[in-house]
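Sharing in case it's useful to others searching the archive later.

Someone asked me privately for the predicted structure of Drug resistance transporter, EmrB/QacA subfamily, so I'm posting the question and my answer publicly. Question first, with the sequence:
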Amino acid sequence: MTETLNVSALGVGRRWSVLVICALALFLVGLDTTIVTTGLTHMGTELGVDAGALSWVVDAYTVVFASLLVTAGALADRFGRRRVLRIGLGVFGTSSLLCAVAGTLPMLIVARAVQGVGASMLSPVALAIVVNVMRDPRERARAIGVWGAMFGLSMAAGPLTGGVLLAVFDWRALFWINVPLVLIVLVLVALVVPETRGEKVRRFDVPGQLLLTTILGIAVGVLIEGPGRGWQDRWVLSGIVVLVVLVWVFIRVESRRQDPLIDPGLFRIPSFTGAILGAVAVFVAFSMTLLLTTRIVRESWGWAAIDAGALTLPMALGATVFAPVSGLLVSRNGPRRPLIGAGALPAAGGACLLIAVESGEPLALVAAYLLVGSGIGCANAPITNTAVSGLPPERAGVAGGTASAARQVGTALGIAIAGSLLTDARPEQYAGASLPGWSIVAACGLLLIMVGTLARRGTHPRHAE
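And my answer, the predicted structure tokens:
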């Protein structure tokens, strides 16, 4: 199946307009993740649930999101990327309405899972459109830098907007706000974004999809329920055993399929493996930092929602400023130096978080936010560029889906771990309970440094094709 448009005929203005509109889809995904985090305390109070159960409000979304990303990319390559993007926007908007009217925690969790289905059709498909429109490797690297900056903007908008909405309305407004945004993006996509398809039709890997969804669900469930039930609980131990067996089965099944959901052979490519591990590490650090500090500032320090949201602005500022700078550096010199810098920043941020939480000093927390956010901004461009450059353009949907799936796996793991740390703690105990979390944030930074150190100097955008 050939592409329906000769994208090389698009002018510079049209290409960058497509980038901006597709980045708005990413903005929706990032906004929803960060804005919901600010309202978890309010949801728990109204619905009468504890901190451990609230983790499912976030992870029901991220688990479904992560597990369907690669399949969504493959669907887009086959049936049309703009078409799948528009369907995803429709599902995302409709499920946001369901979240807003949910009267119980189970209803909210189910609606969030449906929202994850819609979100899975947004970021990887939008990235695939950008990759296919931006055929020049240098232009693509710069575009991915802008792509990362949009995530930084969503980080700024999420906590601050959430704080304002919570001050004026209630937690349901966190979902109502998605509806007009989705309508705006739908109109812009219809007017500007061209339809493209992949040249190779891939078979759908149903066994792989089912296995991946089950693996992620069990892994997150064990992390969320383990601290409360106890790690020696028979259900927790059974979950761990089943998880190990399913991972082994997944590798065996995928190794034998002609068109696997995730090709295990790709992980023999050091650059691809490094990009995936780096993506997981970055978003473990980000999600743990955001959730733990939000709970501490709101419940231990007693800050209002809008003040807590404003406090996260340095994190968003760092991500927004450093994302395009990192994209420029990748386009000129490759991913090695940006990755090393991206690791050093959250490693230092973890140390600052330890000081900030122990001392209760807001300025130390501001410094930590700035360091972690800057690290996220530095990491996105080299990670994304390495992942999408590792596969041919006709499989851009799958490449984008794999990279995005790694991010969402990191987010789900980070939220689950953070929630487990605070499960049995009272607000006045949050500072001590969160200490292992800051060590994990610093360790994620060290992992990125290692990935950057091992990155080949020859992995340069001008050689990517």
